[in-house]
Amino acid sequence: MATRFADDDDSVVVIIGSGAGGGTLAQALAKKGINSVVLEAGKRYQMNDIENDEWEMFNKISWLDERITAGPRQLTETFPGLPAWIVKAVGGSTIHWAGVSLRFQPHEFRSHSELGDIEGANLLDWPISYDDLEPYYVKAERHMGVTGESTGMPYHQWNNNFKVLAAGAELVGYKQLRSGPMAVNTEEYDERGRCMQTDFCMQGCRFGAKWSTMYSDIPRAEASGHCEVRPRSMALKIEHDDKGRATAVVYVDGDGNQHRQRARAVCVAGNSIESPRLLLNSHSAMFPDGLANSSGQVGRNYMTHATSCIFGVMPKPVHMHRGTTFAGIISDEARLPQR
């Protein structure tokens, strides 16, 4: 029988979101015998719900709730009808992500020192360095099963797209061509099978080769008896006591009924849009500008995943479906050194 904690049980940690942050934390707490309630706004899907079909899965797992978009023209006019590619389901965007697991480079921790002031940007150096974070990269890579040195798993072979791109790159003199680290098994690892090279990584991995909290951390946390996941539970507001400590989360279930779950602590792990929304909505007399917003920066400095696409027509079939979605990197034109 699934674990069920009472709404007035203030011994539980309430985790908002079940993706990379929330799902991972739920399992980590469970290992220590700490009870948690995971509130997930989306549905729960099973492995047989995953289809190798781009549009079906887009409509099935995307966060399609209407949002107001403001900001630069590129953001507001290019794709005004499409949502941010965030997943609304148990497992969060770990269902959708491609598994690419690049580390920040040492110079990226010193962005302001390296690049100086940039108009329109709020650029700062990190308060920590790459060396401070490196042991945690190793720990995370082993947890997720990232190809490369941390796990000993071989890198993926180049997909067909990259083979074509690499051939052209070599013709013009590029030399820094490689397969990148990915949290997609190239051999059995952590009770998950290896990649079947079908190129539907971003629609959800039907084979469980790609790390996702949907079928790894979340089920393990639940199996411990120390975790309860509540799908279709949209967090509305975090409440606090007279000392400013979070004590409860008000949420609405899939039928529109409002609930209040008490908590010993609250972890906000929604996503880059929903987490700020929740913190700002949790304003009070003590925190008139929202929780954790003494700086006034909550909800600001949002940066989309900057990307560009180039398409070419090849004289012969490329069979682009053969391989993982992203399996190659060319870094000759990187401005600063790459590891």
Key features of this structure:
339 residues; alpha/beta; FAD/NAD(P)-binding domain; 4-stranded parallel beta sheet; 3-stranded antiparallel beta sheet; 20% helix; 12% strand
Mean of the pLDDT scores?
92
Tell me the helix content. 10-25%
- Please describe the biggest sheet, giving its number of strands, its sense, and whether it closes into a barrel: 4 strands, parallel
CATH superfamily of the domain at 1-95 and 212-301, called what? FAD/NAD(P)-binding domain
Order of helices and strands: EHEHHHHHEHEEEEEHE
Cα Rg: 22 Å
Query: What is the CATH topology classification name of the domain at 1-95 and 212-301?
Result: FAD/NAD(P)-binding domain
SSE-based structural type: alpha/beta
CATH architecture of the domain at 1-95 and 212-301: 3-Layer(bba) Sandwich
Distance between the termini: 48 Å
Helix segment tally: 8
The strand count comes to 9
What is the CATH class of the domain at 1-95 and 212-301? Alpha Beta
Biggest sheet strand order reads 4-2-1-8
- Into which percentage range does the β-strand content fall? 5-15%
What's the overall geometry?
A: globular
Low-confidence stretches: none
Would you mind describing this structure in some detail?
The strands form three sheets. The protein has a four-stranded parallel sheet with strand order 4-2-1-8. The protein is globular, with a radius of gyration of 22 Å. The chain contains eight helices and nine strands. Helix 1 (22-31) runs parallel beside helix 7 (217-223). It has 339 residues and is of the alpha/beta class. It has a domain at 1-95 and 212-301: FAD/NAD(P)-binding domain.
